[in-house]
Write a structure and sequence with these properties.
Elements lengths: L5 E3 L6 H9 L6 E3 H7 L2 E4 L6 H14 L27 E6 H4 L14 H15 L6 H10 L2 E6 L13 H19 L2 E6 L6 H7 L2 E2 L7 H14 L6 H10 L4 H4 L2 H14 L6 H16 L4 H20 L13 E2 H14 L1 H4 L5 H11 L3 E3 L4 E4 L2 H15 L3 H8 L6 H12 L4 H12 L1
Parallel strand pairs: 3-6, 3-7, 4-5, 5-6
Antiparallel strand pairs: 1-2, 8-10, 9-10
Length: about 450
Amino acid sequence: MMNSARVVAEKADNDERSARQFLKSERPSHETVLHRLGEQSLYLPGNAGQGKSTFCQWLMLIMGYGEVPAMPLDEDCEPEYRENLPESLADRLPVLLRLSEFWRSLDLQAGQTELGRYQLEQALCRWLDQHRPGDLTSERFRHHLAQGTVLLVLDGADEVPESEGNICPRQALLNGLAEALPDWTKRGVRVLLTSRPYGLSRAQMQALALDEAPLALLPWSLQELFVKRWFNAVASQTNMGELLNELQQREDLRELRENPLLLTAVCVKYHNQKRLPQDIHDLYQSIVEQVLYSRFKGGSNAREAIARRLEVIALGMHAGNEVEPRKTPVRDIPLSEIDRHLAAYAAQSPTQEGGAEYAAARREELLSHSGLLLSRSDHRAGFFHWTFQDYFTAQRLYREQKPLAELLEQHAGQIEWHNALRMLLARLMAERDADWCCASWTCCVR
């Protein structure tokens, strides 16, 4: 829907990067990924829902066309965000690999973490011979690789497991890529590698020596264009102007509209009901339902299971557990703590969750696909925005049927709990005596 992806240069953190940044001091603060890729191979980190995979698919499309096709409302796109296919990418052989599928073609042995250029190229050819995307053969790929006329797009390094049984696929893949890149670059091969932030360690990024192009949040001008194009695509622009006004005016929508995934959910909600909920609980419930629907196709029961796991993690971040209670909510926790919360939940619901031994796999599924729980640095994770943590905490408290008076007595005096309690009360007000709920809240806050 949106064909513009924006990047922002990361500040240098050592002398070498500082020197490189100085040489690029004339570069504008924001550029399209397509323009940057026309100059050099790139590492493209971005959170779930920011458009990494969508850009990779868009790139394949325009390579097939041989140009950037005309888009609806191109006249509304600001000049700095208009795209053209760089001459350096023209006539290349585009190859898109979803790394979540490709890594199994590496044919690793037990304990193997090292992979050479030849082995990686062999794995690429095996995958091509097996899948034949666009009838591409390994012979044709090898020819273009030797000529340096390949555009190789590797999407989703974070979706390659760090460990799988007795092998270490992610490290082996990155080692092989680090080994191959100097030779490929010398030949002229262009590479795009995507990952969620912290899917690669600093040492792994330095070994690859790829220029980083972190995806930036959508500015208002691109948000407005995104909404217009979305409504144009669904052939209905009724009340679209009212939605744009509401997006600008409501502060509680600011973080949502900066992320393409969540902005899409807002558009879908508005299109279906011709309004956005004013109630904060209803608003987040509708957005969460739309996000999970778009990212998990296993049916309503599967999405409900995903939501419950997110609720368990959120409440753990707010309150800890019985053994290690938390005095105040935190905004990120170690991955090991997430596993403990999921394992404890699995022990309570073994028939639904399949046992505590699946906790790490459940956590990785949430981090890779939910778009709501995101990796942080130092093997930690947190929610896309703290309001989603509050929403899922309220949902879990509602399911557990915690006595309202007890919750208010414990937490109403803590400002960090207020939003979660408001969301809980909003849900209760829809089902109980609204005056009683409001009176309880006012009394405890005072």
